[in-house]
Predict the structure of UDP-N-acetylmuramoyl-tripeptide--D-alanyl-D-alanine ligase.
Amino acid sequence: MSLWTAQEAAAATGGQAITDWRVDGISIDTRSLQPGDLFVALTAARDGHDFVAQALEKGAGAALVSRIPEGVAADAPLLVVEDVQAGLEALGRAGRARTQARVVAVTGSVGKTSTKEMLAAMLAPQGRTHAAVASFNNHWGVPLTLARMPADTEFAVIEVGMNHPGEIAPLALQARPHVAMVTTVAAVHLEAFEDVAGIAREKAAILEGLEPGGVAVLNADLDESPVLGEVAVAKGCETRWFGRSASDYALYAVDLDGDVTRASYRFEGREISAEIQSLGAHFAMNAIGALAAVTALGADLDLALAGLAGWSPVKGRGARFTVDVPDGTVTVLDDAYNANPTSVTAALTVLAATKGEGRRIAFLGDMGELGDEAATLHAQLAAFPAMDNIDTVHCIGPLMAALHAALPEAKRGLRVETSAEAVAALNGEIRGGDVVLAKGSLYMQMARVVDAIREIGQGNAPS
Protein backbone atom coordinates (compact mmCIF):
# COMPACT_ATOMS: atom_id res chain seq x y z
CA MET A 1 0.00 0.00 0.00
CA SER A 2 1.35 3.44 -0.95
CA LEU A 3 2.09 6.02 1.71
CA TRP A 4 0.33 8.80 -0.24
CA THR A 5 -1.50 9.04 -3.54
CA ALA A 6 -1.60 12.27 -5.54
CA GLN A 7 -5.28 12.72 -4.66
CA GLU A 8 -4.73 12.14 -0.92
CA ALA A 9 -1.77 14.52 -0.77
CA ALA A 10 -3.59 17.22 -2.75
CA ALA A 11 -6.62 16.95 -0.44
CA ALA A 12 -4.39 17.16 2.64
CA THR A 13 -2.45 20.22 1.48
CA GLY A 14 -4.92 22.08 -0.73
CA GLY A 15 -2.32 21.84 -3.47
CA GLN A 16 -2.50 20.89 -7.14
CA ALA A 17 -1.32 17.43 -8.13
CA ILE A 18 0.27 17.21 -11.57
CA THR A 19 -0.22 13.71 -13.02
CA ASP A 20 -1.48 10.73 -11.07
CA TRP A 21 1.29 9.45 -8.83
CA ARG A 22 1.90 7.38 -5.70
CA VAL A 23 4.78 7.60 -3.24
CA ASP A 24 6.12 5.13 -0.68
CA GLY A 25 8.24 7.48 1.42
CA ILE A 26 9.22 11.12 1.92
CA SER A 27 12.67 12.69 1.62
CA ILE A 28 14.12 16.17 2.03
CA ASP A 29 17.63 15.23 0.84
CA THR A 30 18.57 13.88 -2.58
CA ARG A 31 21.59 12.14 -1.04
CA SER A 32 19.39 9.77 0.97
CA LEU A 33 16.36 9.78 -1.34
CA GLN A 34 14.99 6.35 -2.31
CA PRO A 35 13.12 5.52 -5.53
CA GLY A 36 9.43 6.14 -4.98
CA ASP A 37 9.93 8.91 -2.38
CA LEU A 38 8.13 12.25 -2.37
CA PHE A 39 10.89 14.86 -2.49
CA VAL A 40 10.05 17.93 -0.37
CA ALA A 41 11.74 21.06 -1.74
CA LEU A 42 12.32 22.88 1.54
CA THR A 43 14.28 26.10 1.62
CA ALA A 44 17.06 26.03 4.20
CA ALA A 45 20.74 26.67 3.54
CA ARG A 46 19.81 26.17 -0.12
CA ASP A 47 16.54 26.16 -2.02
CA GLY A 48 15.28 22.62 -2.45
CA HIS A 49 13.74 23.57 -5.79
CA ASP A 50 17.28 23.54 -7.19
CA PHE A 51 17.42 19.79 -6.57
CA VAL A 52 13.99 18.70 -7.86
CA ALA A 53 15.28 17.68 -11.29
CA GLN A 54 18.01 15.61 -9.66
CA ALA A 55 15.47 14.00 -7.30
CA LEU A 56 13.24 12.99 -10.19
CA GLU A 57 16.22 11.59 -12.09
CA LYS A 58 17.04 9.46 -9.03
CA GLY A 59 13.56 7.98 -9.10
CA ALA A 60 11.50 10.23 -6.83
CA GLY A 61 7.82 9.41 -7.22
CA ALA A 62 6.90 13.10 -7.05
CA ALA A 63 8.08 16.43 -5.61
CA LEU A 64 6.37 18.88 -3.26
CA VAL A 65 7.09 22.37 -4.64
CA SER A 66 5.77 25.92 -4.66
CA ARG A 67 6.63 26.41 -8.36
CA ILE A 68 7.72 24.31 -11.30
CA PRO A 69 11.52 24.49 -11.10
CA GLU A 70 13.80 25.24 -14.00
CA GLY A 71 14.67 22.12 -15.93
CA VAL A 72 11.56 20.23 -14.79
CA ALA A 73 8.90 19.33 -17.34
CA ALA A 74 5.45 20.82 -16.99
CA ASP A 75 3.97 17.32 -16.82
CA ALA A 76 6.41 16.02 -14.19
CA PRO A 77 4.84 14.37 -11.11
CA LEU A 78 4.50 17.31 -8.72
CA LEU A 79 2.38 18.60 -5.87
CA VAL A 80 2.30 22.38 -6.16
CA VAL A 81 1.42 24.35 -3.00
CA GLU A 82 1.70 27.99 -1.99
CA ASP A 83 4.40 27.32 0.59
CA VAL A 84 6.43 24.11 0.90
CA GLN A 85 6.92 24.27 4.69
CA ALA A 86 3.20 24.87 5.23
CA GLY A 87 2.45 22.07 2.77
CA LEU A 88 4.65 19.66 4.71
CA GLU A 89 2.93 20.64 7.96
CA ALA A 90 -0.49 20.06 6.39
CA LEU A 91 0.62 16.65 5.14
CA GLY A 92 1.90 15.85 8.64
CA ARG A 93 -1.41 16.83 10.26
CA ALA A 94 -3.26 14.66 7.75
CA GLY A 95 -0.90 11.78 8.44
CA ARG A 96 -1.62 12.09 12.15
CA ALA A 97 -5.37 12.42 11.64
CA ARG A 98 -5.78 9.31 9.49
CA THR A 99 -4.17 6.89 11.95
CA GLN A 100 -5.55 5.24 15.05
CA ALA A 101 -2.06 5.04 16.55
CA ARG A 102 -1.38 5.67 20.23
CA VAL A 103 1.16 8.50 20.21
CA VAL A 104 3.85 9.45 22.73
CA ALA A 105 5.84 12.68 22.36
CA VAL A 106 9.11 13.25 24.20
CA THR A 107 11.06 16.42 24.89
CA GLY A 108 13.73 17.53 27.35
CA SER A 109 17.01 19.38 27.60
CA VAL A 110 18.96 16.12 27.53
CA GLY A 111 18.16 12.58 26.46
CA LYS A 112 15.36 13.19 23.94
CA THR A 113 16.78 11.05 21.18
CA SER A 114 18.00 8.20 23.39
CA THR A 115 14.65 8.09 25.17
CA LYS A 116 12.81 8.18 21.84
CA GLU A 117 14.83 5.17 20.72
CA MET A 118 14.13 3.41 24.04
CA LEU A 119 10.40 4.04 23.62
CA ALA A 120 10.48 2.64 20.09
CA ALA A 121 12.35 -0.46 21.30
CA MET A 122 9.77 -0.97 24.07
CA LEU A 123 6.79 -0.60 21.75
CA ALA A 124 8.06 -2.47 18.68
CA PRO A 125 7.32 -5.94 20.14
CA GLN A 126 3.73 -4.83 20.79
CA GLY A 127 2.55 -3.46 17.46
CA ARG A 128 3.47 -1.59 14.28
CA THR A 129 5.65 1.22 15.61
CA HIS A 130 6.69 4.42 13.83
CA ALA A 131 9.33 6.74 15.27
CA ALA A 132 11.28 9.82 14.29
CA VAL A 133 14.65 9.07 12.70
CA ALA A 134 17.86 10.67 13.98
CA SER A 135 17.00 13.94 15.75
CA PHE A 136 14.12 15.02 13.52
CA ASN A 137 12.52 17.16 16.21
CA ASN A 138 12.24 20.69 14.81
CA HIS A 139 9.86 22.72 12.63
CA TRP A 140 10.41 20.40 9.66
CA GLY A 141 11.40 17.22 11.51
CA VAL A 142 8.12 16.79 13.39
CA PRO A 143 5.80 17.25 10.37
CA LEU A 144 8.13 15.08 8.27
CA THR A 145 7.87 12.29 10.86
CA LEU A 146 4.08 12.61 10.95
CA ALA A 147 3.78 12.68 7.17
CA ARG A 148 5.91 9.53 6.93
CA MET A 149 3.64 7.63 9.34
CA PRO A 150 1.83 4.71 7.67
CA ALA A 151 -1.92 4.73 8.11
CA ASP A 152 -1.89 1.37 9.91
CA THR A 153 0.60 2.46 12.59
CA GLU A 154 -0.33 1.26 16.08
CA PHE A 155 2.25 3.16 18.16
CA ALA A 156 4.13 6.35 17.26
CA VAL A 157 7.04 8.05 19.01
CA ILE A 158 7.56 11.73 18.19
CA GLU A 159 10.60 13.71 19.36
CA VAL A 160 10.05 17.45 19.97
CA GLY A 161 12.90 19.93 20.40
CA MET A 162 13.48 23.65 20.59
CA ASN A 163 16.11 26.38 20.47
CA HIS A 164 13.96 29.40 21.32
CA PRO A 165 10.75 30.21 23.21
CA GLY A 166 7.48 29.35 21.51
CA GLU A 167 8.71 26.43 19.40
CA ILE A 168 7.39 23.40 21.28
CA ALA A 169 3.64 24.08 21.55
CA PRO A 170 3.00 24.31 17.78
CA LEU A 171 4.89 21.05 17.22
CA ALA A 172 3.01 19.32 20.05
CA LEU A 173 -0.30 20.47 18.55
CA GLN A 174 0.71 18.82 15.28
CA ALA A 175 1.69 15.57 17.03
CA ARG A 176 -1.42 15.42 19.28
CA PRO A 177 0.12 12.88 21.69
CA HIS A 178 -1.79 10.71 24.11
CA VAL A 179 1.28 10.78 26.40
CA ALA A 180 3.85 13.58 26.66
CA MET A 181 7.16 13.06 28.45
CA VAL A 182 9.76 15.58 29.67
CA THR A 183 13.08 13.81 30.31
CA THR A 184 14.81 16.63 32.19
CA VAL A 185 15.37 20.38 32.28
CA ALA A 186 18.88 21.83 32.24
CA ALA A 187 20.90 24.89 31.26
CA VAL A 188 20.67 24.26 27.52
CA HIS A 189 19.94 27.06 25.01
CA LEU A 190 20.26 29.35 28.02
CA GLU A 191 21.17 32.32 25.87
CA ALA A 192 17.57 32.36 24.57
CA PHE A 193 15.93 32.29 28.03
CA GLU A 194 16.07 34.36 31.19
CA ASP A 195 16.70 31.34 33.41
CA VAL A 196 16.29 27.58 33.65
CA ALA A 197 12.71 28.01 34.90
CA GLY A 198 11.94 29.62 31.54
CA ILE A 199 13.36 26.54 29.82
CA ALA A 200 11.13 24.37 32.03
CA ARG A 201 8.03 26.31 31.00
CA GLU A 202 8.93 25.88 27.34
CA LYS A 203 9.50 22.14 27.78
CA ALA A 204 6.16 21.85 29.61
CA ALA A 205 4.47 23.42 26.57
CA ILE A 206 4.51 19.93 25.08
CA LEU A 207 1.42 19.35 27.24
CA GLU A 208 -0.48 21.84 25.07
CA GLY A 209 -0.78 19.16 22.41
CA LEU A 210 -2.16 16.39 24.65
CA GLU A 211 -5.29 14.66 23.46
CA PRO A 212 -8.28 14.67 25.85
CA GLY A 213 -7.52 12.27 28.69
CA GLY A 214 -3.81 12.49 27.94
CA VAL A 215 -1.05 11.78 30.44
CA ALA A 216 1.99 13.88 31.37
CA VAL A 217 5.14 11.93 32.36
CA LEU A 218 7.45 14.27 34.27
CA ASN A 219 10.81 14.12 36.06
CA ALA A 220 10.33 14.51 39.83
CA ASP A 221 13.99 15.13 40.69
CA LEU A 222 14.52 18.59 39.21
CA ASP A 223 14.72 21.99 40.86
CA GLU A 224 12.22 22.97 38.17
CA SER A 225 9.81 20.06 38.79
CA PRO A 226 7.30 22.40 40.49
CA VAL A 227 7.22 24.48 37.30
CA LEU A 228 6.41 21.38 35.24
CA GLY A 229 3.76 20.41 37.79
CA GLU A 230 2.08 23.82 37.66
CA VAL A 231 1.67 23.55 33.90
CA ALA A 232 0.26 20.02 34.22
CA VAL A 233 -2.25 21.17 36.86
CA ALA A 234 -3.32 24.08 34.66
CA LYS A 235 -3.73 21.65 31.76
CA GLY A 236 -5.83 19.36 33.96
CA CYS A 237 -4.12 16.19 32.76
CA GLU A 238 -3.15 13.05 34.66
CA THR A 239 0.49 13.24 35.76
CA ARG A 240 2.95 10.43 36.32
CA TRP A 241 6.16 11.42 38.12
CA PHE A 242 9.36 9.41 37.71
CA GLY A 243 12.75 9.57 39.41
CA ARG A 244 14.56 8.83 42.64
CA SER A 245 12.17 11.03 44.62
CA ALA A 246 9.01 9.79 42.88
CA SER A 247 6.59 7.48 44.70
CA ASP A 248 4.91 5.54 41.88
CA TYR A 249 7.68 5.32 39.25
CA ALA A 250 10.83 5.28 41.34
CA LEU A 251 14.45 4.54 40.51
CA TYR A 252 16.02 3.39 43.76
CA ALA A 253 19.26 1.66 42.76
CA VAL A 254 21.73 1.82 39.86
CA ASP A 255 24.75 -0.40 39.37
CA LEU A 256 27.27 0.36 36.62
CA ASP A 257 28.89 -3.00 35.89
CA GLY A 258 31.27 -3.57 33.00
CA ASP A 259 29.34 -2.75 29.84
CA VAL A 260 25.85 -2.71 31.35
CA THR A 261 23.70 -0.67 33.70
CA ARG A 262 21.47 -2.56 36.14
CA ALA A 263 18.56 -0.57 37.51
CA SER A 264 16.06 -1.36 40.23
CA TYR A 265 12.64 0.28 40.07
CA ARG A 266 9.47 0.43 42.14
CA PHE A 267 6.70 0.62 39.60
CA GLU A 268 2.96 0.60 40.30
CA GLY A 269 3.42 -1.56 43.37
CA ARG A 270 5.98 -3.90 41.74
CA GLU A 271 9.73 -4.14 42.21
CA ILE A 272 11.38 -4.46 38.82
CA SER A 273 14.94 -5.05 37.68
CA ALA A 274 16.13 -3.93 34.27
CA GLU A 275 19.40 -4.36 32.41
CA ILE A 276 20.50 -1.72 29.92
CA GLN A 277 23.21 -2.54 27.40
CA SER A 278 25.26 0.58 28.06
CA LEU A 279 26.78 2.35 31.02
CA GLY A 280 25.03 5.40 32.44
CA ALA A 281 22.80 6.26 35.38
CA HIS A 282 21.11 8.76 33.05
CA PHE A 283 20.00 5.85 30.85
CA ALA A 284 18.45 4.21 33.91
CA MET A 285 16.56 7.41 34.70
CA ASN A 286 15.29 7.84 31.15
CA ALA A 287 14.21 4.20 31.11
CA ILE A 288 11.90 4.54 34.13
CA GLY A 289 10.26 7.55 32.51
CA ALA A 290 9.89 5.64 29.25
CA LEU A 291 8.35 2.68 31.08
CA ALA A 292 5.85 5.02 32.73
CA ALA A 293 5.04 6.45 29.30
CA VAL A 294 4.52 3.15 27.48
CA THR A 295 2.23 1.78 30.18
CA ALA A 296 0.28 5.05 30.05
CA LEU A 297 -0.24 4.26 26.37
CA GLY A 298 -1.75 0.95 27.38
CA ALA A 299 1.23 -1.16 26.36
CA ASP A 300 2.41 -4.26 28.25
CA LEU A 301 5.11 -3.67 30.89
CA ASP A 302 6.86 -7.03 30.54
CA LEU A 303 7.08 -6.74 26.76
CA ALA A 304 8.42 -3.21 27.22
CA LEU A 305 11.14 -4.52 29.56
CA ALA A 306 12.05 -7.15 26.98
CA GLY A 307 12.34 -4.42 24.35
CA LEU A 308 14.50 -2.30 26.67
CA ALA A 309 16.89 -5.22 27.17
CA GLY A 310 17.66 -5.14 23.45
CA TRP A 311 18.23 -1.38 23.26
CA SER A 312 21.65 0.26 23.01
CA PRO A 313 22.71 3.84 22.22
CA VAL A 314 23.22 4.90 18.62
CA LYS A 315 26.33 6.39 17.05
CA GLY A 316 27.27 9.74 18.58
CA ARG A 317 24.98 9.32 21.59
CA GLY A 318 26.88 7.11 23.97
CA ALA A 319 27.63 4.21 21.63
CA ARG A 320 30.65 2.14 22.64
CA PHE A 321 33.08 0.26 20.42
CA THR A 322 36.64 -1.04 20.54
CA VAL A 323 39.53 -0.41 18.19
CA ASP A 324 42.58 -2.64 17.88
CA VAL A 325 45.73 -0.52 17.79
CA PRO A 326 49.33 -1.74 17.46
CA ASP A 327 49.86 -2.13 21.21
CA GLY A 328 46.43 -3.31 22.33
CA THR A 329 42.77 -2.35 22.28
CA VAL A 330 41.19 1.08 22.81
CA THR A 331 37.63 1.44 24.09
CA VAL A 332 35.85 4.44 22.55
CA LEU A 333 32.78 6.15 24.02
CA ASP A 334 31.20 7.97 21.08
CA ASP A 335 29.06 10.74 22.59
CA ALA A 336 30.05 13.29 19.98
CA TYR A 337 26.64 14.43 18.79
CA ASN A 338 25.97 17.22 21.28
CA ALA A 339 26.91 18.60 24.69
CA ASN A 340 25.70 20.67 27.61
CA PRO A 341 26.71 20.69 31.30
CA THR A 342 24.24 17.94 32.24
CA SER A 343 25.12 15.56 29.41
CA VAL A 344 28.87 16.17 29.78
CA THR A 345 28.85 15.32 33.48
CA ALA A 346 26.83 12.20 32.71
CA ALA A 347 29.37 11.19 30.06
CA LEU A 348 32.29 11.85 32.43
CA THR A 349 30.61 9.61 35.01
CA VAL A 350 30.40 6.83 32.43
CA LEU A 351 34.03 7.33 31.41
CA ALA A 352 35.17 7.19 35.04
CA ALA A 353 33.19 3.97 35.61
CA THR A 354 34.33 2.19 32.45
CA LYS A 355 36.81 -0.57 33.10
CA GLY A 356 40.08 -0.58 31.22
CA GLU A 357 43.72 -1.52 31.72
CA GLY A 358 45.02 1.88 30.66
CA ARG A 359 44.12 5.52 31.07
CA ARG A 360 40.74 7.23 30.97
CA ILE A 361 40.94 10.10 28.50
CA ALA A 362 38.35 12.74 27.56
CA PHE A 363 38.31 14.82 24.39
CA LEU A 364 35.89 17.62 25.26
CA GLY A 365 34.68 20.24 22.79
CA ASP A 366 32.88 23.49 23.52
CA MET A 367 29.31 23.42 24.86
CA GLY A 368 27.29 25.95 22.86
CA GLU A 369 24.35 28.27 23.56
CA LEU A 370 25.11 28.85 27.26
CA GLY A 371 24.95 32.63 27.22
CA ASP A 372 26.87 34.82 29.66
CA GLU A 373 27.62 31.92 31.99
CA ALA A 374 29.43 29.89 29.35
CA ALA A 375 32.98 30.30 30.69
CA THR A 376 31.90 29.57 34.27
CA LEU A 377 29.95 26.47 33.26
CA HIS A 378 32.94 25.14 31.34
CA ALA A 379 35.35 25.78 34.23
CA GLN A 380 33.02 24.12 36.75
CA LEU A 381 33.49 20.77 35.01
CA ALA A 382 36.95 20.60 36.61
CA ALA A 383 35.37 20.17 40.06
CA PHE A 384 32.97 17.41 39.01
CA PRO A 385 33.69 14.32 41.18
CA ALA A 386 34.17 11.95 38.24
CA MET A 387 37.21 13.99 37.21
CA ASP A 388 39.11 12.34 40.07
CA ASN A 389 39.10 9.09 38.09
CA ILE A 390 39.97 10.61 34.70
CA ASP A 391 43.63 10.79 33.74
CA THR A 392 43.73 13.31 30.89
CA VAL A 393 41.32 15.90 29.52
CA HIS A 394 41.95 17.33 26.05
CA CYS A 395 40.18 20.69 25.67
CA ILE A 396 38.99 21.68 22.21
CA GLY A 397 37.52 25.08 21.36
CA PRO A 398 37.74 28.64 22.74
CA LEU A 399 35.24 28.04 25.55
CA MET A 400 37.05 24.91 26.74
CA ALA A 401 40.04 27.13 27.51
CA ALA A 402 38.26 27.91 30.79
CA LEU A 403 38.19 24.21 31.71
CA HIS A 404 41.82 23.74 30.70
CA ALA A 405 42.84 26.57 33.04
CA ALA A 406 40.75 25.14 35.89
CA LEU A 407 42.10 21.58 35.63
CA PRO A 408 44.99 20.35 37.77
CA GLU A 409 48.13 20.50 35.70
CA ALA A 410 48.52 16.72 35.77
CA LYS A 411 45.19 16.28 33.97
CA ARG A 412 45.72 18.89 31.29
CA GLY A 413 46.01 17.46 27.81
CA LEU A 414 45.82 19.20 24.44
CA ARG A 415 44.51 22.75 24.30
CA VAL A 416 43.46 23.46 20.70
CA GLU A 417 40.79 25.48 18.93
CA THR A 418 39.27 22.90 16.58
CA SER A 419 38.63 19.17 16.29
CA ALA A 420 40.79 19.18 13.15
CA GLU A 421 43.76 20.35 15.24
CA ALA A 422 42.99 17.66 17.81
CA VAL A 423 43.02 15.01 15.08
CA ALA A 424 46.32 16.30 13.73
CA ALA A 425 47.86 15.89 17.20
CA LEU A 426 46.22 12.53 17.95
CA ASN A 427 49.17 10.25 17.15
CA GLY A 428 50.91 9.36 20.37
CA GLU A 429 47.99 10.48 22.53
CA ILE A 430 46.21 7.10 22.41
CA ARG A 431 47.59 3.68 23.28
CA GLY A 432 46.31 0.19 23.97
CA GLY A 433 44.20 -0.20 27.10
CA ASP A 434 42.93 3.39 27.05
CA VAL A 435 39.26 4.29 27.38
CA VAL A 436 38.51 7.42 25.35
CA LEU A 437 35.45 9.70 25.44
CA ALA A 438 34.63 12.21 22.68
CA LYS A 439 32.01 14.81 23.61
CA GLY A 440 31.09 18.28 22.39
CA SER A 441 28.39 20.37 20.78
CA LEU A 442 27.60 19.35 17.22
CA TYR A 443 29.27 22.37 15.62
CA MET A 444 32.57 21.32 17.21
CA GLN A 445 32.60 18.20 14.95
CA MET A 446 33.94 15.89 17.66
CA ALA A 447 32.97 12.95 15.46
CA ARG A 448 36.23 13.70 13.64
CA VAL A 449 38.10 12.53 16.73
CA VAL A 450 36.05 9.33 16.83
CA ASP A 451 36.71 8.67 13.15
CA ALA A 452 40.42 9.37 13.56
CA ILE A 453 40.70 6.76 16.33
CA ARG A 454 38.98 4.28 14.03
CA GLU A 455 41.60 5.05 11.37
CA ILE A 456 44.42 4.36 13.83
CA GLY A 457 42.88 0.93 14.28
CA GLN A 458 42.87 0.46 10.51
CA GLY A 459 46.56 1.27 10.32
CA ASN A 460 46.06 4.69 8.75
CA ALA A 461 47.28 8.05 9.94
CA PRO A 462 44.43 10.27 11.15
CA SER A 463 43.20 12.70 8.53
About this structure: The two ends are 46 Å apart (CA to CA).
